[in-house]
Write a structure and sequence with these properties.
Helix content is 39%, strand content 18%. By secondary structure, it is of the alpha+beta class. The chain has three domains: 288 residues, no CATH class; 119 residues, no CATH class; 58 residues, Arc Repressor Mutant, subunit A. Helix 7 packs across helix 9, helix 12 crosses helix 14 and helix 12 crosses helix 15.
Length: 488
Amino acid sequence: MADWEVVIGLEIHAQLATKSKIFSGSPTAYGAAPNTQADLVDLAYPGVLPVLNAEALRMAVKFGLAIGAKIARRSIFARKNYFYPDLPKGYQISQYEHPVVGNGAITVLLDDGAVKTIGVTRAHLEEDAGKSLHEGLADSTGIDLNRAGTPLLEIVSEPDMRSAKEAVAYMKKIHTLVRYLEICDGNMQEGSFRCDANVSVRPRGAAKFGTRAEIKNLNSFRFVEKAIQYEIARQIELIEGGGKVVQETRLYDSDKNETRSMRSKEEANDYRYFPDPDLLPVEIDDAFIDTVRGSLPELPDEKAARFAREFGLSAYDAGVLSASREMGAYFEAVVAALGAAGRNAPQAKLAANWVMGELSSALNRDNVEIAAARVSPEALAGLLARIVDATISGKIAKDVFESMWSDGKSADALIEEKGLRQITDSSAIEGVIDSVIAANPKQLAEYRSGKDTLFRFFVGQVMKVTEGKANPAQINELLKMKLAGGPK
């Protein structure tokens, strides 16, 4: 692997969140019975004409502006001709030479803290094809044309990625962005957000790209990473064994964790692109672009920078909390309810830790979206306030949170109901410490002879006697003094 350089480019297909299809009035709702959401326009019956959905155009321009791309004042739809069972009209309406969105760029934060800029070659509008069905059909294949004509934004990257992890980071950033812009729901299980990965290898230091293979229809971040890793290893092994990589389209089998050949890869001229005679060129003016620009929300990088600036968060924490609009809004609501503001505010950091920690864990465990969280931002702030004023310890707070999640009660109600108030009376804590030391003379002697690790044993014993209610900071301070032979 050290002798080889990996070159990766991604073609991401984001299904646009329009209510109707790109060239017809058919609905786009997911889950309808097969073949109930396709009309004669979607199937290109003779005598019908496509009409561009203006909302799809607006969403494409919105994405382009968000990545600093060049917006084409004039773009053209073309017919991409090929045969596929779920494409009954024999061609797909797409954009080829004149896409609506030109060159742009995305910056990603990598695991090692490095920031990398990845170029976006283009983003063009096109219609989706139908879907082939196999489950429950024995040896037959069914065709569902509900998806035919659904608007897609195909986002094509430059071949700037050099590892599977970089590709995943880029794909996650695009996923975050289209959801922020509310142009795609990002639901990968339903096929709303998927990608094709172009992978090649070349000797390290070589200028010429190697022969690429395209892995089609990857619909999870984990599959993207695993498929690319497998393909890299396959190509290197093939070349080092004296073979040659063939330009082809491959599929990823997640059960076997391998890619397999699907068909030889077509070139652009195989598709016989030509301007669609039924669709006029799309011309947009500065006024339209300015209107779309005015609708842009605070973007993920802007929000992360503000979180770091206003709340003193690390780049990592700010990035996690701004990964979705919903997560960022929840965090800010907790901070506001706590009254935390100002750089390095410890309460803001406490809120960040709990949103990224206990809250996210509960959401993932129960497969709940943050908008439907069973603990509201205000309720979580109420719990954190009890940590701040030392009513309860952080450890007890975790138990209280679980009860809040399951019972829907407030932190204050649960603390009173279960008698969880923290013991902060120094004399009471000293009394417990004295009794623990007296009950463990052997451990005391070993500690005083240099076995410092026994300090945690004594802390644990005090916490056990007080049922976890004693203030941890006071325990540590008083215990150090007592173990050193201080006042009794």
